[in-house]
Structure formats: C-alpha cells, structure tokens
C-alpha cells in the first residue's frame, strides 16, 4: 500500500501484483477508484461533505439528498425513480416511500416502536414492560404473541394462540430444556467446558438427536444426526459430517458421510482455484485480475464467464452451445433479459423493483405472463387475464383464493387446506382434490394428505431434528391390492436426509444415496455423487476404535475405552485415511510404543464403491440447469419459470434431481419445495407458513423475494439482519427461543467511516466508497469453514458476498471488534472501512453464534 503525506490511501497492490488506485479531493474525500480491467468509479460531495452522487463504471449515476439535520431523505436511481424517507424531530424514520408504496412507523415517548403500518394499511402493534422488553406483538393478521421474562431479562414463558412455551435454564444461564403445553420439546446438553454436545427431541415419537464434536481449540470437528425407533430405540438412521483444519486454522477440508475428503485449493488470500474429492482433482477455476471466476473446468466441460463493466454477469458459455446464456441489465441494475440459443426471456419490473411480467420468445413461441401483487406483495389475479376481478389486496396477507384453489389457514397463519376451485358455471361432481396440512407445535409440517371423492390419494409424514431440519419422510401412495381394491400402500416409501449445517447434503432411499457438494459459502450445488445402496452395504466397516476395543482385552476379549481415547483414535483414523498423520499423533503413538504402520494394520480394509459423479451447471441464482458427467456428456437438463416451477425436463438416464432454487428440495407427493425452515409453494411463489423470525425476515411473513430473477431465500428466513441507519445487527439462531421461534442476538454495531468527520459512519449513501463507506447492501455469508476464514483483526471473520450482491469492486469485508468502533477512526487505516465493527464482548457473542451455525447468512439493508 502507498499513502499520501496526509495518511490517505493512494494505491493497493494485492498478492497477485494487481493494483487499485484512489483519488481524493482537497478535503481528503475519496473521489475516484480505479481498478484493474480498466474499471473506475466516481463520487461527488456537497459543501458539508455529504455524498451527493455516485457514478459507476458504466457512467450510471445515483444521487442522494439530505435534510438540514443531515439525514438521508432521498435516493434517486439512474432512471430517475426516487425512494424517500421522512424523519421526526428526534431523527427517527417515520415513513419510507418506494415506487408510490409507503410504510410508516410510530413510536412512544421512550422512542420504542409501537405501531407499524404496511403498504396495505394493516397494522402490527407492540407493547413493552418497564425494562423495554417486548411483552406483546399483534401481527398484521391479528395473531397475538406474548412474552414473559424473569428479573434478569431471560425469556421464561411465551404464548402464541393456544401454545404456551416455557424455557428452563441452568445456573450458568444456559438453556437446558423447553416445554410446550406441558410436554417436553428439546433438551440441550453441554460438556464441562460449556460447549454444546447434544440436542435431542421427539419427532412423531422418534428420538432424534444432533451430536457435536470439537477439537482442543473448541473448533467444530463433527456433526452427527441420529434417529431411533419409537418402541425399540434401535438406530434407524445416522449421518455424520467431519471438518478438518490446516496449520493456519482454516477449515478447507470437509469429510462427508461415506465419502472421501473434499479439499478446496486456494491461492493468495484465499481465492478458490480448485476442488478435489479424495486424491482426484475434479474442478479447476481460472480468475481475472479482479479475482473473478472466468473459467470453470470439469474434465471436458468448460464454462466461460464474462462480466459487464459494472461487474454484473454478462454471459455463461459452455462447450454445448444449447446451454449458453447471455444477460442484459438496465441502468438500475435489474436483469431485463436472458438470451439462449433456444429462447429469449425479457423481464419487466415495477418502480418498487418487483417482477411484473415475463415475455418469452422463440422460433415458434411468443408468450407474455403478467404477475400482479397488492401493495404488500401478495399475488393478485392479473387484470388482463381476469378483468372482472374486484380484488385489490389481502389485508392480512393470507391469500384465500386464486385462479386454481381455495385456501384456509389456522390461528397461527399456517395453511391447513387447499382445494381445487370449481369455476363458475361448471357442474360440480365432487371430484375436486383437497390437500390438507398438519403441523407440530413448532409450526413444522408433519402430516400431509391429498384426497379425492373422500378417498386418500397420497399421505406423507415428516420427521425433523431439534434444529428443525427434516431428517426423514414416509410416503404412502394409492395402489391396487391383491383383492383389486384401491387403497394406500401398507408399506411407505422412506427417504432419509443428512445435513451439514443448513445445507442438505445427503438423500437416501432403498435404492440409492445422492450426495451434494456445494460451492463454498453458498447454497449453489457443485458436485453430485450417486451411490447404489447395494454398493453402500459393502462399505460397512468397523472404526479403528471399535476394532481395538473388540480385541483389546488381556485375554483377547473386548474392552471399553474412555471417550477421550475413542476421540483420539477417531482423529488418528481420519488422518491415516487422508494420508496426513500429524506430528502430534505420531508423538502420541511413539509415547505408547506404537507406529502409524501398526495402527494401519489394525484397521478394516476400505472398500471403494462404484459411484456416478456429475457436475451441476446452474444459472446465476444457483438453480440447476444441466448435469454433466465426468466424460463431459449432458445427462440431464431442465427449464424452469421464474418462481422455480419445472417447465421441461430431459432425463434419458432417469436421474433424480430434486434441487430447485437455492436451499429448496422438490417433494413430488405434495408439489411443495422444502426450504429448510418451512415449505414453499412454487405455484403461488410464496411460503405456506409465516416466517419463524417474524419481522426480521420482512413485513410480509409469507413472502418469497418479489424479484425472484436475482433474489433468493435459501433458508426460508434471513438468519442475520444488519440495518446501516439503525446501527443494529440482529441474528436468529436455529435454537427456538426469544421470538417464540428462535434465539435472538441483537448488538449495536457500526460500519463505514470518514476519519474524524464521520459523515459516512452508518450512512447507506456511502456504501459505494472504498475505505469510507459501510458494507454494501445485499446478502453475505461468513467464511467460517472456507479458506481465508479468519483475519488478523480482533474477532475478525471474513464476509463473502452472494452472487447477486453488488460490491462496487471492493473487497476485504469483515465482522470484527474495534477499540473505537462507534467513534471516529484514527490513523491511516479506519477500523470500520467497509467492515462491521462492535465491542469486543459483543463481537465474541456474534462469533459464538456464527461458529455454532457456520452456514449463517447476513442481510444488509439501509
């Protein structure tokens, strides 16, 4: 790095020798950033030093306006559209307007939010106790939730429309168990160091447990899910994922259940260059001078990627021309066209950025599909297709009918029934199909039926682990029995699921096991590995610890090792299998008078089963389009609409490909997509239950992103939310608690700086600024298990942008602690330049949550 005599950064040279240059005005404000590939951005300021304009690399200008108090009041997009915010005398935002739609907020004398008014005119209200703790929330649909706390502020009781939940803690204030309507729900267990080791509960009578393992440094080394029989307690299913760390402490190796180790190859400061499965290199990456991926190689397959001057995806070209895609964007950064050799799709948007229509053209095709929503984002009948409809909004966000179905909900806002809509004038024959949905006390779908003529057509039941992840489903289908009668099958089709954090990595039935390896830090699938269950049976072997225990007695009989010794042997075995025995393990063996070779001779032989390996070729969102074999052949391909509905599929090899939009799995029996925390209905383009994190996931609790062309929701919720202007970061864990759904961590943070002047501190208008502005708005993930995860900064963890988050050619984003996080930063390097900073204590709490849930995501808003 080079600096001016005033401490201003003039240039930065990265590990590859690429240079970024910075220009400043006479007041020290950054006016331009010049990157490799000829990319430059420019900024302008007013006499008060407030950012008033930003011009991107294509010359598109975004302007900003402020009131006399310095509050950002208007953002003017390149196309002239305006988004405004009004403030009260205390500087609190009282309403926001975007594209003619307004949301408003009301506060009490203590400055607490007491009322929200949505775009539909519906209200949510809040009540607090004298300690400012929330004690009641009444939603837009009238659903009321109440909260009770002890004298220390811990939540001890909550009420939700007939569901009464109690939380119980130990002397260290750790959650130990939870009861719902008097019945025990989850139980948490900790070791002597206070680390969580087990979470268990009953799901449909089955005891389901999640087990965690750690190394001596407290890093997560393994996660195992187990399911036991309701009566016999026999083990029905288990799935384990292990993580290994390199000398720098980075988790760049993952060992999926029954697979060889997955190793991510990197260069420089952690840029991905390749991926290996065991000793076999599978994927190679080539990057440009900005370290963006430009070429992906998988055997004979090559994907070439190009970008616009603004850094947006411009094209994806394959060896096979039929899968080529070119992307066109408007001045506002909205994707308006995707072109391929087969067809072209053009997209139109409202002034609020919602998708309003799709125009598809091909050789013999010209189709326009409109999408209409009410002000709050609920789907409406399109006036062009339904000119007689008088419906203008759903005030409670509960859609009661559409062109195809009638819908019913319970007091919790959960969809309970969906019935075919009989058009007017059609003679009823009672042949309409009815879908019924049943839930547990945590609002998880546990039972589904579809009936016709009062006879069941299909029935399914679902099991979940204590974290709410689905671990099994059983499906009974209508079939003809030996007597000729039609009835549900006596024996269900059973499917088991295995997880690594929030990502579903394994699906297994009686015929096959399908495992998915995802791109680091994302929900975009990369590699598909399929193994026949007959081959899996041949891989069963004893662990090294089991082998030694069965013959380790003085008389050659069995012996029981202490858990610490079993853990050490398990680690040694994994190192031997990976051919990477550490010096620590060698010294331990030597102290016992043993060698690695002797231990290796005690291990059962490893059988390598026959497997089919495919590469996922996905669109810009992570939706699979093509499966490519190791020989470079296209063995599956599909086409979808904008909301993830399958339109066409070519599947000559009968491959089971159930992944849809990121984080979603297709359920054939119901037509729904399982989305980690809830279920998504692609026909409606929304969820069938309310967001478990409530308002933190948006004001419409059923809503999927209203621009599904570029926005995704892989978890069915937003794990962490950071508001730049509110200077608060809230995270919601998978452990159900504070909001009657999940534990909530809320901490004050800061982002963005401008030296002692501080006009860019917590100012979303400065997000474009290198070394000054806050972290850009969008979706991010913490690189906990990936290469380059940690940083030299105190409590520093790297942040990775999603594919659709605009970084303005900036990098080096972190969450970290800082001695002067909320005041002016001193010295040439500002502690919050693009980073999110807080106190050491708060950031340690955040890191504990992140490392316990390494797939957490962060949504940054203004």
TrEMBL record:
Q: List the gene name.
A: wapA_2
Q: Which UniProt keywords apply?
A: Repeat
Q: Which NCBIfam families match?
A: Rhs_assc_core (TIGR03696), YD_repeat_2x (TIGR01643)
Starting at the broadest rank, the lineage of the source organism is: Bacteria, Pseudomonadati, Pseudomonadota, Gammaproteobacteria, Enterobacterales
- Keyword presence, rRNA processing: no
The UniProt entry's sequence similarity note says:
Belongs to the RHS family.
Q: What is the protein name for this chain? A: RhsB protein in rhs element
- Xref: InterPro entries: RHS, Rhs_assc_core, RHS_repeat, T6SS_VgrG/RHS, TEN-like_YD-shell, YD
Annotated Teneurin-like YD-shell domain residues: 101-221, 338-475
Segments forming domain RHS protein conserved region? 613-650
Q: Which domain of life is it from?
A: Bacteria
Task: Give the PANTHER family listed for this entry.
Answer: PROTEIN RHSA-RELATED, PTHR32305
């Amino acid at each position: 790095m080079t600096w001016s005599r005033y401490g201003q950064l003039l240039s930065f040279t990265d590990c590859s020798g690429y240079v970024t240059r910075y220009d400043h005005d006479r007041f020290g404000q950054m006016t331009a950033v010049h990157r490799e590939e000829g990319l430059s951005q420019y900024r302008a300021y007013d006499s008060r030093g407030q950012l008033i304009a930003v011009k991107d690399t294509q010359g598109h200008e975004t302007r900003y306006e402020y009131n006399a108090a310095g509050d950002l009041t208007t953002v003017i997009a390149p196309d002239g559209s305006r988004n405004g915010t009004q403030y009260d005398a205390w500087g609190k935002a009282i309403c926001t307007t975007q594209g003619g739609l307004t949301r408003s907020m009301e506060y009490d004398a203590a400055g607490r939010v007491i009322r929200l008014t949505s775009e539909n005119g519906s209200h949510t209200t809040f009540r607090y106790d004298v300690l400012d703790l929330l004690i009641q929330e009444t939603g837009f649909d009238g659903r009321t939730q109440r909260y009770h706390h002890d004298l220390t502020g811990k939540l001890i009781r909550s009420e939700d429309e007939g569901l009464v939940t109690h939380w119980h803690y130990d002397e260290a204030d750790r959650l130990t168990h939870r009861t719902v309507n008097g019945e025990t729900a989850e139980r948490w267990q900790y070791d002597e160091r206070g680390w969580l080791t087990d979470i268990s509960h009953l799901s449909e009578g089955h005891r389901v447990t999640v087990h965690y393992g750690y190394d001596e440094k407290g890093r997560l080394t393994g996660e195992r899910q187990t399911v036991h029989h309701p009566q016999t307690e026999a083990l029905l299913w288990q799935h384990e994922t292990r993580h290994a760390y390199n000398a720098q402490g980075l988790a760049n190796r993952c060992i999926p259940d029954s697979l060889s180790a997955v190793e991510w190859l990197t260069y420089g400061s952690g840029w991905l260059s390749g991926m290996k499965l065991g000793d076999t290199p599978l994927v190679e990456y080539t990057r440009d001078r900005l370290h963006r991926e430009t070429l992906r190689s998988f055997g004979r397959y090559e994907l070439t990627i190009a970008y616009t001057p603004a850094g947006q995806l411009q094209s994806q070209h394959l060896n096979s021309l039929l899968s080529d895609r070119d992307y066109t964007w408007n001045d506002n950064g909205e994707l308006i066209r995707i072109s391929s050799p087969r067809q072209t799709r053009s997209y139109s948007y409202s002034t609020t950025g919602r998708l309003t229509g799709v125009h598809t053209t091909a050789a013999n095709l010209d189709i326009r599909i409109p999408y209409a929503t009410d002000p709050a984002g609920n789907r409406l009948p399109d006036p062009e297709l339904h000119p007689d409809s008088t419906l203008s909004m759903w005030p409670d966000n509960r859609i009661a009918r559409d062109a195809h179905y009638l819908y019913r909900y319970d007091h919790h806002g959960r969809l309970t029934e969906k019935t075919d809509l009989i058009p007017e004038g059609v003679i009823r024959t009672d042949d309409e199909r009815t879908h019924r949905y049943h839930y547990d006390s945590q609002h998880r779908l546990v039972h589904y039926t579809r009936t016709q003529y009062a006879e069941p057509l299909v029935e399914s039941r679902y099991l979940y682990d204590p974290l709410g992840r689905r671990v099994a489903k059983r499906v009974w289908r209508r079939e003809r029995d030996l007597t000729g009668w039609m009835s549900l099958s006596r024996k269900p089709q059973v499917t088991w699921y295995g997880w690594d954090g929030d990502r579903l990595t394994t699906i297994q039935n009686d015929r096959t096991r399908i495992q998915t390896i995802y791109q680091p830090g994302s929900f975009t699938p990369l590699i598909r590995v399929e193994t026949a269950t007959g081959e899996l049976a041949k891989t069963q072997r004893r662990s090294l610890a089991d082998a030694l225990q069965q013959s380790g007695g003085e008389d050659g009989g069995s012996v029981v090792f202490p858990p610490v010794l079993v853990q050490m042997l398990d680690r040694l075995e994994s190192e031997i299998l990976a051919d990477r025995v550490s010096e620590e393990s060698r010294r331990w063996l030597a102290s016992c008078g043993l060698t690695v070779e002797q231990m290796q001779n005690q291990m059962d032989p490893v059988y390598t089963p026959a497997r089919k390996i495919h590469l996922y070729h996905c669109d810009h969102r992570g939706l699979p389009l093509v499966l490519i074999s190791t020989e470079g052949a296209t063995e599956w391909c599909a086409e979808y609409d904008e909301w993830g509905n399958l339109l066409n599929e070519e599947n000559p090899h009968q491959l089971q490909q159930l992944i849809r939009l990121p984080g979603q799995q297709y359920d054939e029996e119901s037509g729904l997509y399982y989305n980690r925390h809830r279920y998504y209905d692609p026909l409606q383009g929304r969820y069938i239950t309310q967001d478990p994190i409530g308002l933190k996931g948006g004001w419409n609790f059923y809503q999927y992103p209203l621009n599904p062309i570029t926005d995704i929701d892989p978890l069915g919720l937003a794990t962490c939310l950071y508001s730049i202007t509110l200077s608060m970061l809230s995270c919601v864990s998978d452990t159900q608690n504070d909001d009657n759904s999940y534990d909530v961590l809320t901490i004050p943070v800061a982002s963005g700086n401008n030296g002692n002047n501080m006009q860019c501190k917590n100012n979303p208008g400065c997000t474009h600024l290198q070394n000054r502005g806050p972290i850009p708005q969008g979706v991010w993930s913490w690189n906990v298990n990936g290469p380059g995860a940690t940083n030299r900064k105190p409590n520093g963890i790297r942040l990775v942008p999603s594919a659709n988050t605009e970084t303005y050619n900036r990098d080096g984003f972190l969450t970290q602690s800082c001695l002067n996080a909320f005041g002016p930063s001193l010295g040439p390097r500002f502690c919050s330049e693009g980073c999110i900073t807080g106190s050491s204590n708060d950031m340690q709490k955040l890191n504990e949550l992140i490392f316990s849930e390494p797939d957490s995501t962060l949504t940054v808003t203004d």
